[in-house]
Design a protein that fits this description.
The protein is built from 5 helices and 8 strands. With 194 residues, the protein is of the alpha+beta class. Helix 1 crosses helix 2. The N and C termini lie far apart (43 Å). The N terminus and C terminus are likely disordered.
């Protein structure tokens, strides 16, 4: 579980990698953060990945909300995703790709840990601004990674931001030597049976 301070507690605490609120992303990489936020704003519903009790992934729909300098995850009380996040706060959130195949604005995903907000004053402030169905549970997203993938012909452009690091941009094509060579057998990768 994650406390409101953002520190991991209990089982499954993992490596304890740094996780930050949305305002830190905006401060470190403002143009990138604006593109990510704009992409989330194109659609209301997105796809949240949590971990079930047995460790298997669970995908559910979610309305993500940028407000008060944070990325908020609001959920119906008693939902499976609330139970998952209370047990293990790790999550990934993938932006709704929308219709068509052009991915205008790129493909965006964020991951990190969800911190449940128990402060009644904060929940009331959020509820006054958003007017979600009541009762609801509110989680603050502490981010460990923000990724945007877009097309910059002839390249696929991958932008990755992590706390404490510079924004990293990579460009590649399906003709890059490491892509054509495939995984190297003997480095933890099993050959594909033919």
């Amino acid at each position: 579980m994650t406390s409101e301070s953002g520190r991991r507690t209990g089982s499954g605490a993992g490596s304890g990698s740094e996780a930050v609120g949305w305002a830190a992303v905006e401060a470190a990489a403002p143009e990138f953060a604006a593109l990510v936020r704009e992409r989330f704003g194109l659609h209301r519903h997105h796809v949240l990945a949590t971990l079930r009790k047995d460790g298997a992934p669970r995908l559910t729909g979610l309305e993500a909300d940028f407000r008060f300098g944070e990325l908020w995850l609001g959920m119906m009380t008693g939902s499976r995703k609330v139970q998952d996040l209370r047990r293990d706060p790790r999550f990934a959130l993938h932006v709704n790709p929308g219709g068509g195949t052009d991915l205008a604005g790129g493909d965006v995903r964020v991951s990190g840990r969800a911190v449940e907000m128990g402060d009644p004053g904060l929940k009331a402030r959020y509820a006054a601004a958003v007017q979600p169905p009541e009762p609801f549970e509110l989680f603050r997203a502490l981010l460990t990674e923000v990724v945007r993938t877009s097309v910059e012909a002839p390249f696929m452009k991958l932008e990755v931001w992590r706390p404490g690091r510079q924004l990293r941009t990579m460009r590649r094509t399906s003709q890059d030597p490491e892509v054509l060579a495939g995984p190297v057998v003997g480095e933890g990768v099993r050959p594909i049976d033919g």
